[in-house]
């Protein structure tokens, strides 16, 4: 509440300053207490956010290890990538194969024999019907609005039901190499015999030059299927990318080779991918451990700051639970490999996880299935960690409940600040009223005193 500058005229006192100091003396301790509580609550909210973020990152690493297919991850190696490139995916099985690529799949490419002076030359009128393999034929009507070479190209490409043909125009030398002419080119959108096409024309003589039933009308490349031999067995496919000859393996044909040119295709366990995922898990665990240690840090007399969640029971429970679940034996393991430590992963007294790559390699080579059990079986480390982290992160879980409680506390503190401020405003009004009344009384007393002094002075003359 503002105090007018006229106050204090009667008494000569700084009423504005006096009232402000009195109000501040009463209110500041309360505001300071509220601010300390807000700062503490906000720090905890921020700390819980950091904890949830770290847990979420750790959860991603755990989920990768919890996937039983990780330990079935294979890699494929081609003996000659100039002929075929290979990629192993889900469902692939380890093994060695010998293949040959005798023919690549090709898309039909038909070039009109007729030489046109340019894209704007009129070709003719009528209807062109395209038949692409076993698909439903589609037709294009050519009339005065689109009967040029460019118009026909655009009509073919723009047909709503075009299901397999692309038209273009090339500008090349004429037959005698004495000038430049234009030709229409029709190309199948997909490779393979099943995607070959034909064009039937019902129209005038000009347009009939684009009918494929007359062999002389077109030259080019005929459609062809890819032909390979896999372990001596022939496989014919319409595409050069083949995914159904070796289960889970993609064959990307690059070139046809001379007869009887063998290419070895080896499918082996991808230990490097497994180790990378396990290493990622170790890194994520250590990042989470570092975050929880920082959040619960006690600075003591070092002059640093305490962690945002120092003494927090939920933080202590998270640290304890995750270390215990990572360290305990796996009851569902099928051999002596039944803990992380037995496969080369250890946790020191500070909660830092380390990975012995040599020991892990030996475990993978000795009993891959058991290593898989350590992580992804019913009581596997990744299985139980996944369940526990999900429990912490879920809506209504301990972290969510804590954050909700703290946010309610912050709202209550904000309301309390408003209540204190309202009380202080009333106190200020009351004090001003009292001091104004006093100031007026003092003014009257001073006026009376001055009058009496004047009267006495007159009497003494």
List keywords for this structure.
five-stranded antiparallel sheet, 17 strands, alpha+beta, 461 residues, 3 domains
Task: Provide an overview of this structure.
The chain is of the alpha+beta class and 461 residues long. The protein has 3 domains: 1-73 and 271-438; 74-105 and 227-269, no CATH class; 109-224, no CATH class. It has 9 helices and 17 strands. The chain has a 5-stranded antiparallel beta sheet with strand order 1-15-3-11-12, with no helix packed on it. The protein has a 4-stranded antiparallel beta sheet with strand order 7-8-4-10, with helices on one face. Strands 2-14-13 form a 3-stranded antiparallel beta sheet, with no helix packed on it. 26% of the residues are buried.
The geometry reads as flat
Helicity level = 40-55%
**SSE order, one letter for each helix or strand:** HEEEEEEHEEEHEEEEEEHHEEHHHH
Average pLDDT over all residues: 90
Regions with little confidence, pLDDT below 50 for 5+ residues? 1-6
Q: How many separate structural domains?
A: 3
Structural class: alpha+beta
Distance, first to last CA: 51 Å
Give the biggest beta sheet. Answer: 5 strands, antiparallel
* Strand order in the largest sheet: 1-15-3-11-12
The radius of gyration computed from the alpha-carbon positions, rounded to a whole number of angstroms, is 43 Å
Number of helices: 9
């Amino acid at each position: 509440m503002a105090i007018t500058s006229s106050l204090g005229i009667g008494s000569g006192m700084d009423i504005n300053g006096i009232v402000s100091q009195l109000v501040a003396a009463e209110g500041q301790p309360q505001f300071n207490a509220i601010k300390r509580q807000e700062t503490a609550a906000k720090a905890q909210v921020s700390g819980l956010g950091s904890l949830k973020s770290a847990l979420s990152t750790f959860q991603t690493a755990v989920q990768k290890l919890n996937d039983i297919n990780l330990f079935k991850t294979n890699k494929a190696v081609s003996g000659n990538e100039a002929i075929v490139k290979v990629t192993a995916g889900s469902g692939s099985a380890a093994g060695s194969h010998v293949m040959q690529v005798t023919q690549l799949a090709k898309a039909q490419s038909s070039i009109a024999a007729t030489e046109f002076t340019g894209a704007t030359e009129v070709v003719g009128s009528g209807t062109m019907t395209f038949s692409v393999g076993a698909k439903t034929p589609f037709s294009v009507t050519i009339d005065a609005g689109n009967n040029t070479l460019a118009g026909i190209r655009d009509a073919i490409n723009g047909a709503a039901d075009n299901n397999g043909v692309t038209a273009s125009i090339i500008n090349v030398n004429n037959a005698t190499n004495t000038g430049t002419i234009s030709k229409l080119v029709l190309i199948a959108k997909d490779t393979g015999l099943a995607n070959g096409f034909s064009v039937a024309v019902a129209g005038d003589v000009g347009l009939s030059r684009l009918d494929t039933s007359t062999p002389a009308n077109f030259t080019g490349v005929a459609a062809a299927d890819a032909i390979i031999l896999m372990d001596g067995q022939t496989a014919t496919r319409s595409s050069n990318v083949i995914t159904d000859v070796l289960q889970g393996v993609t064959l990307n044909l690059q070139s046809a080779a001379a007869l009887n040119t063998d290419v070895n295709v080896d499918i082996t366990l991808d230990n490097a991918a497994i180790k990378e995922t396990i290493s990622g898990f170790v890194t994520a665990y250590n990042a989470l451990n570092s975050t929880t240690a920082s959040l619960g840090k006690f600075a003591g007399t070092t002059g640093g700051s305490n962690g945002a969640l120092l003494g927090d029971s939920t933080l202590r429970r998270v640290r304890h639970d995750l270390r215990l679940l990572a360290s305990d034996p796996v009851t569902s393991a099928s051999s002596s490999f039944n803990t992380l430590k037995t496969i080369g992963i250890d946790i020191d007294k500070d909660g830092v996880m380390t990975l012995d790559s040599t020991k892990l390699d030996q475990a993978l080579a000795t009993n891959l299935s058991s290593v898989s059990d350590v992580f992804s079986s019913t009581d596997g480390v990744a299985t139980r960690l996944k369940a526990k982290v999900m429990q912490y992160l879920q809506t209504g879980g301990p972290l969510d409940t804590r954050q909700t409680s703290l946010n309610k506390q912050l709202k209550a503190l904000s309301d309390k600040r408003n209540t204190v401020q309202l009380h202080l405003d009333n106190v200020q009004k009351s004090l001003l009223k009292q001091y104004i009344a006093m100031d007026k009384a003092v003014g009257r007393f001073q006026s009376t005193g001055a009058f009496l002094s004047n009267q006495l002075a007159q009497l003494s003359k």
